[in-house]
Design brief:
Chain lengths: 341, 309
């Protein structure tokens, strides 16, 4: 296990730059999530860490040493791929043993390690099957076992849950997280799914256009977004942003409430909200509309707890008094960066 | 009341929708191919089988049945056993060489380099050039007096003029020559097969092997080659069947010589059955390929099924 540190990593493919100077520190044992839209460079960055791509410039340190010119096989990192990359012609046992075989680990040791990894992931009964005879969830466990079997310095995961169905994904999320905590391996996890990022990461690095926009705990990312991109990329529905005084004012939909629901005496800012449409989603109600004095074409959303909302405060086509607690307002300057509070 | 639908008019005849039936349409489409195979493969095969158990020659076209006498006679002939051995050496030698060339060619052509598309097109030439044309060129290269290979070696000082090999005059060298020519003809096909196979291996699998610590050789021989083995075996089956039954290179190059050193089954069958007019023995020699190829193909297909991934 080791810390992973990058200094100003740049990767250019011809004229196009995929990674634009990422400096990131992942301490030993941390679960770091790289979150960003597709094409933002997060996968390229991961491939640079494991050595499948070479950075155009910048330094990569694993366990304190610079590994820029060290080939993948000597870096000691393990990677789990989006489609798992299992070897179809090998049994599960041989798949898991492969990283040990390449290191010329003695047979007895290989057997012991394979046993350990397969017990850890509960795939002991699958050892003699071929990958094509496994379900998606089982393949994922095999890939994880293969990644862990040689006790890597760091574990890199590239969208490992995207090939699973929704139900399996939820349970696999819990499993990977619990398992990472048990083993304590430094983990870098790439995803475009904010639910995975928020739910699993010790810290999240939000990436856009090959740059890190913000690094922080899930709470920091959600409550104190560093710029407009983070504010709108994280959260469903995203943060409302309205232009004001040459900058932007942001507030989360769940903080935008009918005025009479704010009754704790805290200071608030009032808006006149015209409801256009509302969606009842069971545990919540999403209300769409516009607010007076701002761009009439900009859709503002409010996320309300259905049980506590009076019918008359969401009636469509009418203006209603809504408000946001001042503590929940976020200010951004005209470049979209977070202004001081 | 509103009429929702007019009743459907009765079909004019029961054959009106006959072409909409899958079974009928399928049979119509497949019929030409079946007819072709029956007439051009089935009938000659049956005819050859009949000839091989008769005493038919072009001088005495009697259809008298002689049982397996023809087979017994050719089996007793030591020349025939030699021909059979030659056929195996020729087939497996040239396939082996062709596969190795194909693998290396494919690896080279996978890497991007300037002019790759032109090279990819040119490399198909040995396969596309008419065999007669190509063999004439090779004949000059292996000529006893004007061999450009010998001239080059002499000029480089590797051999002296007096010890220049007589390529087509020495039995072993002559066999080597026809093997090399056939491998040269086969290797573009092998390259295409290998290229198709290697490009079909998912990049994730190769990347996983790289991260798992496998270097170039291990990636190639423990991951890529086993994964493309089924498709390569299919290519090899084609190669073996075509080479085993081939007579063109031997016919054009050595005429089976020197003293039968390069005679193969196809050539021998042609010589005996057509040139000498002994149709029944020629048919027996040619039919000998059938069980041999049958066994080889069955074994290889079983191997593929077991390897299937």
């Amino acid at each position: 296990m080791a810390a992973v540190l990058t200094r100003d990593i740049v990767k250019k493919f011809g004229e196009v730059s995929a990674v634009n100077g990422i400096s990131l520190t992942v301490p030993d044992g941390e679960f770091m999530v790289l979150l960003g839209p597709s094409g933002c460079g997060k996968t390229t960055f991961l491939r640079i860490i494991c050595g499948l791509e070479k950075q155009t410039s910048g330094d990569l340190l694993i366990g304190g040493g610079v590994v820029n010119d060290i080939p993948p096989r000597a870096r000691g990192v393990a990677m789990m791929f989006q489609s798992y990359g299992l070897y179809p012609h090998y049994s599960v046992r041989k798949n898991i043993a492969f990283p040990l075989r390449t290191q010329r680990v003695p047979n007895a040791e290989v057997e012991r390690k394979v046993e350990w990894a397969s017990q850890l992931l509960g795939i002991g009964h699958l050892l003699d099957r071929r990958p094509r005879q496994l379900s998606g969830g089982e393949r994922q466990r095999v890939a994880l076992a293969r990644a862990l079997v040689r006790e890597p310095t760091a574990l890199l995961l590239d969208e490992p849950l995207s090939n699973l169905d929704a139900k399996l994904r939820a349970s696999a999320r819990l499993e990977i997280k619990a398992f990472q905590q048990r083993v304590g391996v430094t983990t870098i996890y790439v995803t475009h799914d904010q639910v995975e990022a928020m739910g699993m990461g010790d810290r999240i690095a939000v990436i856009d256009h090959g740059r890190v926009c913000q690094v922080g705990t899930p709470t920091e990312i959600y409550d104190d977004p560093a710029d407009r991109f983070v504010a709108t990329f994280v959260g469903t529905p995203p943060m409302n942003l309205v232009a004001r005084n040459g900058g932007y004012l942001g507030f989360r939909p769940e903080n935008f409430l009918p005025k009479d629901m704010i009754d704790d005496g805290e200071a608030f800012t009032e808006f006149s909200f015209r409801v256009d449409r509302s969606e009842y989603l069971g545990s919540e109600r999403i209300v769409y509309g516009t607010i007076e004095g701002f761009d009439p074409n900009q859709v503002i959303t409010a996320k309300l707890p259905p049980a506590h909302v009076a019918e008359e405060s969401i009636r469509p086509g009418e203006w209603h008094p809504y408000a946001v607690r001042n503590s929940a307002l976020r200010h951004f300057n005209k470049d979209g960066k977070r202004a001081s509070r | 009341m509103v009429t929702i639908a007019e009743p459907i008019a009765k079909p004019a005849s029961r054959f009106r929708f006959i072409l909409d039936r899958r079974d009928v349409l399928g049979a119509i489409f497949v019929a030409p191919a079946i007819l072709y195979v029956l007439l051009l493969v089935g009938v000659p095969l049956l005819l050859a089988m009949y000839y091989s158990v008769s005493a038919y020659t072009i001088y005495d076209p009697s259809w008298s049945f002689v049982g397996l006498a023809n087979f017994e006679q050719i089996m007793e002939n030591p020349d025939f056993l030699r021909t059979l051995t030659n056929t195996f050496v020729f087939t497996f030698g040239s396939q082996f060489l062709g596969l190795i060339l194909g693998k290396f060619g494919a690896l080279l052509l996978l890497r991007p380099f300037p002019g790759r598309k032109i090279v990819r097109a040119l490399i198909i030439l040995p396969w596309a050039v008419p065999v007669a044309l190509a063999t004439v060129a090779w004949q000059w290269m292996f000529d006893s007096l004007y061999s450009v290979i010998n001239w080059t070696m002499i000029a480089l000082g590797i051999i002296s003029r007096s010890e220049a090999p007589n390529w087509l005059g020495n039995p072993q060298l002559a066999m080597l020559c026809v093997i090399v020519i056939n491998a040269w003809r086969f290797f573009p096909f092998a390259i295409v097969i290998f290229l198709a196979g290697i490009t079909a291996v998912p990049q994730d699998v190769i990347d996983a092997a790289t991260v798992d610590g496998a270097g170039f050789w291990r990636r190639n021989y423990q991951i890529i080659v086993p994964m493309i083995l089924p498709i390569v075996t299919i290519g090899l089956i084609f190669g073996i069947v075509f080479t085993f039954t081939d007579l063109s290179i031997v016919f054009l190059m050595t005429m089976g010589g020197p003293v039968g050193a390069t005679s193969v089954l196809g050539f021998e069958g042609f010589q005996v059955g057509i040139v000498s007019g002994d149709v029944s023995h020629g048919a027996a020699i040619s039919l000998f390929m059938l069980p041999v190829l049958f066994v080889v193909v069955i074994l290889m297909l079983r191997f593929i099924r077991r390897r299937e991934i």
